[in-house]
């Protein structure tokens, strides 16, 4: 069943299964997903579960932002990020989810290991730029690549030909968040461009895209 994962400040607030044809989001109590947020309209948006899942703006004041762009009505794909007010939803469809199990262990941790699925190559990769594995290249082959450890985790998400960096639920030490070009990563996903430097859990990685 498809669902929405609501995050705020990098933490999961709640998961909402999309278990009926129309699910409304807004500030007023009658909404299926009520959000106590002054930047959210009374009935801000609806999610329509038909043959596919759609998000539709209900003439809200601040609009619906899908993957960084304002939309009025759009079909959703697994991994899409929807911003409503100050909140960010991730759309998850278990039928099509496609995670890559790649974990980069910080160089200070012994017995470093890198695990990756064997799948067709992509045109983007990350290169380790510090520690014993300096210079190792890891292709970004699937929809999601998780980097870090159990305490410090970030995710690189592929959406079409673009890549985004976002925090992952449960990343432990909030005083040491993942960084993009030395700027701490906040709740919202950030677009990546070739040459960007990612830091997570002591590991520094360079994002490269052909």
List keywords for this structure.
210 residues; 22 strands; six-stranded antiparallel β-sheet; 0% helix; mainly beta; single chain
Strand order of the largest sheet: 2-1-11-10-7-8
Class from helix and strand fractions: mainly beta
Biggest sheet features:
6 strands, antiparallel
- Rg over CA atoms, rounded to whole Å, is 18 Å
Shape: elongated
**Amount of beta strand:** 35-45%
Question: How many alpha or pi helices?
Answer: 0
Average pLDDT level? 79
Number of strands: 22
SSE sequence, one letter per element: EEEEEEEEEEEEEEEEEEEEEE
Regions with pLDDT < 50 over 5+ consecutive residues? 98-103, 105-122, 169-173
Distance between the termini: 35 Å
Helix content: under 10%
Which helices and strands occur, and which strands form pairs?
Blueprint: E1 3-8, E2 11-17, E3 22-26, E4 33-34, E5 45-49, E6 53-57, E7 64-66, E8 69-71, E9 73-75, E10 81-84, E11 87-92, E12 99-100, E13 124-128, E14 137-139, E15 144-148, E16 153-159, E17 162-167, E18 179-180, E19 183-184, E20 190-191, E21 197-200, E22 203-209
Parallel strand pairs: 3-4, 12-15
Antiparallel strand pairs: 1-2, 1-11, 3-5, 5-6, 6-9, 7-8, 7-10, 10-11, 13-14, 13-22, 15-16, 16-17, 17-20, 18-19, 18-21, 21-22
Structural commentary:
The protein is mostly beta strands. It is 0% helix and 45% strand. The chain has no helices and 22 strands. The strands form four sheets. The chain has a six-stranded antiparallel beta sheet, with no helix packed on it. Strands 14-13-22-21-18-19 form a six-stranded antiparallel beta sheet, with no helix packed on it. A five-stranded mixed beta sheet has the order 4-3-5-6-9, with no helix packed on it. A hairpin with a 2-residue loop joins β10 and β11. The chain is elongated, with a radius of gyration of 18 Å. About 14% of the residues have low confidence.
């Amino acid at each position: 069943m498809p669902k929405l994962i609501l995050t705020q400040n990098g933490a999961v607030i709640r998961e909402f299964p999309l278990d009926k044809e129309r699910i409304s989001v807004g500030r007023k109590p009658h909404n299926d997903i009520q959000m106590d947020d002054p930047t959210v309209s009374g009935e801000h948006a609806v999610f329509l579960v038909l043959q596919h899942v759609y998000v539709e703006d209900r003439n809200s004041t601040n609009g619906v932002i899908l993957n960084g762009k304002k939309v009025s009505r759009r079909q959703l794909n697994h991994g899409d990020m929807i911003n409503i007010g100050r909140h960010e939803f991730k759309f998850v469809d278990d039928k099509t989810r496609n995670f890559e199990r790649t974990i980069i262990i910080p160089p200070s941790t012994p017995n470093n290991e890198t695990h990756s699925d064997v799948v067709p190559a992509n045109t983007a990769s990350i290169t380790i730029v510090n520690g014993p594995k300096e210079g190792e290249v890891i292709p970004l082959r699937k929809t999601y690549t998780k980097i870090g450890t159990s305490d410090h985790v970030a995710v690189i998400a592929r959406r079409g030909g673009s890549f985004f960096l976002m925090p992952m639920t449960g990343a432990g030490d909030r005083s040491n968040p993942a960084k993009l070009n030395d700027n701490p990563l906040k709740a919202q996903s950030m677009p990546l461009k070739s040459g960007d430097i990612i830091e997570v859990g002591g590991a520094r990685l360079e994002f490269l895209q052909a």
